[in-house]
From TrEMBL:
Entry EC number(s): 6.1.1.20
Locations listed in the record: Cytoplasm
Textual note on the cofactor: Binds 2 magnesium ions per tetramer.
Annotated Gene3D superfamilies: 3.30.56.10, Bira Bifunctional Protein, Domain 2, Ferrodoxin-fold anticodon-binding domain, Nucleic acid-binding proteins, Phenylalanyl-trna Synthetase, Chain B, domain 3
Domain TRNA-binding: 39-147
Residues bound to Mg(2+): 454, 460, 463-464
Identification of the protein by name: Phenylalanine--tRNA ligase beta subunit
Chief subcellular location: cytoplasm
């Protein structure tokens, strides 16, 4: 929100200089982003009148002008196309200093003397509105310093408002704050109802009252299309960052800045039958004032007549019904739109306007009639015309009602750390426009004003007391922290525990966007249609990720492009998987990426590339953290992973995640090395922990038997280990794979798996016969289930 200080001081004028005023606003929560002069520094420029003009004898594009400054007449050579007798303009006398330290001296231009310079806006450091001299009103006082006349010794203040303070998106709103903070009167301009000069009305109707509870319109006939906005209005718009266009548009923009009410004017001749505030039909189109053509969705609120969509409600008007240089009759409108009906609609279509910015945050629902009268009076004053009666369509039950909130002095003291006098509490609230009723000593019922729609609970009122009383006046002390332990389930691992474990194994934690490049997402999950963002911050961050690998692979690309040759990254976060019926599964995951050497470079360690088993060891360490023993790694294919080096991880038959090497085809598509390894685990599964239980130690000796089995090539070691466990009873304490062999002495299509079986009884020493019986049972089961035989 930009505004000039002199305009604000017309509403509320405390005895503070600019620096003090800016500090006060910031301390009250209206953070000031910047303060800059309204115009660049210059001196010696006054109001003057061009009395006579004549062509330059030696230059076709120059004019000899006789310029009167109220005291003397000077000859000035001017090249502006709009110079003419009777024109009042800024005149830089000899000796004047213009922006950029440009000094005016007597000169000769093509042989003719020139005693000064007639100035356009750019010469004064202002924005050029026309190509030529800055034209001043006919009643501009001759000889008056132009800085004084245009009030250029002014400051432009820009405040950065939080979304809850939409009531300050106007000079009136800021002035209310200044008035409250300094206990100075609020001087509002007199806004009287404009009497109807005719009885013509244009019908208005609302089809969606919950989205638009109030809509006002008024016909103004016979305006002067060639009228010019007054200089005082042009300057205030310019200093607020708005470019003047024509009187009707300028007035609606002025009311927007002054009161905070967005307004719009239609060319009455371009409207048919009546106005209807409704939802767009799917596929309906509209061309906006900025030239964009939009295809609308059926949840978009629009202003329409009987023939077409006229405007995107609360955002921007349409080109087909816009006011032009030929417009003589207008339909002036303003409305109250529910914030939720407007929120996000502008961004969905790639738009952001002053109107949408205000309606999304909230506009005073009681402001529309006042704004209509103010705009009507200004238009008639500037461009003439005759106003008709105001047409209104409203749904009172959908108009927001003032909030009633209970407040106690005890609660205020607890939150502020200081007891405020009761009379000061009621005074502050009253100055804020709130109706305060004492219900009992130290307790009040407070009704918020219509413009403070951010007031909802008691804490909101206490925050207002703190702002106005002064944060710097409140006591400062350290909070008291109550001791106590945090209860945590023994059957649940913490995310911190998993992070610490991976960091200890050399991984770095990454945090990537939950929205990713559609091309990357399509490469990783071509069969899944991700949720697309309505208003992405960029085309490369346009869909929600269905796997954390999207962010990790993007991070890998950036690191590899910067010559990083060893990566060990992990991330914990949500993936977003669309489900049937339009639901979205938000599933917490833990994912990792590994590339490069197995260990950091060291002088006494040969460099070795990381392989599948290295990463499997890291994953097994994660899975073992909770004490679970029933995880299984099953050979399976995944569209992202190498078909010969990928595994599905399960726990009690429940899928826990995937592990494997990046698919070569995908690596080539993403311009990545093929020796990247990935894993992704479901956190709800891997965070399951088993409560530790005591198991008595045996004092009996253990016996180990090593057996090498020849099995078909497709038999997995895990399946063979499970078979051994099924064949034995509790006397089998451990079974471990210690060798895999294929080659000489082993038939083609087979392999040798060497297992170490450790037996131990808890109460007695095992005899050879018992051990032989156990081994025989193992041989029999493995022969039956896997066609396994002992290797000779």
């Amino acid at each position: 929100m930009r505004f000039n200080e002199s305009w604000l001081r017309e509403w509320a004028n405390p005895k503070l200089d600019t620096k003090q005023l800016v500090h006060q606003l910031t301390m009250a929560g209206l953070e000031v982003d910047g303060v800059e002069p309204a115009a660049a520094a210059f001196t010696g420029v006054v109001v003057a009148e061009v009395r006579e003009t004549a062509p330059h004898p030696d230059a076709d594009k120059l004019t000899l002008c006789q310029v009167f400054d109220g005291d003397s007449t000077f000859q000035v050579v001017c090249g502006a196309s709009n110079v003419r007798p009777g024109l009042r303009v800024p005149f830089a006398r000899v000796g004047a200093v213009l922006p950029g330290d440009f000094r005016i001296k007597p000169a000769k231009l093509r042989g003719q003397p020139s005693e000064g310079m007639l100035c356009g806006a750019s010469e004064l450091g202002l924005e050029d509105l026309i190509d030529g001299l800055l034209e001043l009103p006919d009643d501009a006082p001759l000889g008056r310093d132009i800085r004084d006349y245009l009030q250029l010794d002014d400051q432009v203040i820009e405040v950065d408002l939080t979304p809850n303070r939409a009531d300050c998106l106007s000079v009136r709103g800021i002035a209310r704050e200044v008035s409250v903070l300094n206990s100075v009167p609020l001087t509002e301009p007199a806004i009287a109802p404009v009497a109807a000069a005719h009885d013509e009305q244009f019908p208005v109707a609302i089809s969606v009252p919950e989205s638009c509870p109030r809509y006002l319109g008024r016909i103004i006939r016979g305006i002067n299309p060639s009228a010019q906005s007054p200089l005082w209005m042009v300057e205030r718009l310019r200093r607020a960052g708005l470019r003047p266009i024509d009187p009707v548009v300028d007035v609606t923009n002025y009311v927007l800045l002054e009161l905070g009410q967005p307004m719009h004017a239609f060319d009455l001749a371009k409207l048919e039958a009546g106005i209807n505030v409704r939802l767009a039909q799917e596929g309906e189109t509209v061309e906006l004032l900025d030239g964009q053509s939009l295809t609308l969705r059926d949840d978009t609120l629009v202003i329409a007549d009987a023939a077409q969509v006229l405007a995107l409600a609360g955002v921007m008007g349409g080109k087909a019904s816009a006011v032009s240089d030929a417009t003589q009759d207008i339909f002036l409108e303003c409305a109250f739109f529910a914030p939720l009906a407007i929120a996000g609609k502008a961004r969905r279509y790639g738009l952001h306007t002053d109107s949408s910015h205000r309606f999304e945050r909230g506009v005073d629902p009681s402001l529309q009639a006042l704004a209509m009268e103010r705009a009507t009076a200004l238009i008639i004053e500037i461009a003439g015309g005759e106003a008709g009666p105001v047409s209104e369509a409203s749904s009172p039950e959908h108009v927001p009602q003032p909030t009633e909130i209970s407040l106690s002095a005890e609660r205020a003291q607890a939150l502020l750390g200081r007891a405020l006098p009761e009379h000061e509490i009621t005074d502050i609230l009253a100055r804020l426009g709130m109706a305060v009723t004492e219900t009992s000593p130290g307790h009040w019922q407070v009704r918020a004003p219509s413009w403070r729609f951010d007031m909802a609970i008691e804490q909101d009122l206490v925050e207002e007391l703190a702002r106005v009383y002064g944060y710097d006046r409140l006591p400062t002390r350290l909070p008291t922290i109550q001791g106590g332990s945090v209860s945590r389930s023994e059957t649940q691992l913490s995310a911190r525990r998993l992070s610490d474990l991976l960091c200890a194994r050399g991984y770095l934690e990454a945090i990537t966007y939950t929205f990713v490049d559609p091309a990357m997402q399509a490469a990783l999950a071509p069969s899944t249609q991700p949720l697309a963002l309505t208003n992405p911050i960029s085309s490369e961050l346009a869909v929600m990720r269905t796997t954390l690998w999207a962010g990790l692979l993007t991070a890998a690309q950036r690191n590899l492009n910067r010559q990083v040759n060893r990566l060990r990254l992990f991330e914990q976060g949500l993936r977003f998987v669309p489900e049937a019926g339009g639901a979205l599964l938000q599933e917490p995951m833990l994912a990792g990426l590994v590339f490069g050497s197995a260990r950091p470079q060291h002088f006494d360690d040969a460099t070795r590339k990381v392989d599948f088993l290295d990463v499997k060891g890291d994953v097994e360490a994660l899975l073992a953290a909770g004490g679970q023993q029933d995880y299984r790694f099953e050979a399976a294919e995944h569209e992202v992973l190498h078909p010969g080096q990928s595994a599905r991880i399960t726990l009690d038959g429940q899928e826990a995640g995937w592990l494997g090497r990046l698919h070569p085809a995908l690596a080539a598509k993403l311009d990545l090395p093929t020796d990247i390894y990935l894993f992704e685990l479901r956190k709800d599964v891997i965070e399951q922990a088993r409560v530790p239980a005591f198991s008595a130690l045996s004092d009996q000796p253990s016996v180990r038997r090593d057996l090498a089995f020849v099995v078909p090539e497709e038999v997995t070691a895990g399946a063979l280990l499970d078979g051994v466990r099924r064949a034995c009873d509790s006397r089998l304490r451990e079974v471990r794979l210690f060798d895999v062999y294929q080659g000489d002495g082993i038939q083609k299509g087979s392999k040798s798996l060497a297992l170490g079986l450790t037996f131990q009884d808890r109460s007695s020493t095992l005899r050879d016969a018992e051990i032989n019986d156990l081994v025989a049972g193992v041989l029999t089961l493995l022969k039956q289930e896997f066609n396994a035989s002992l290797r000779e």
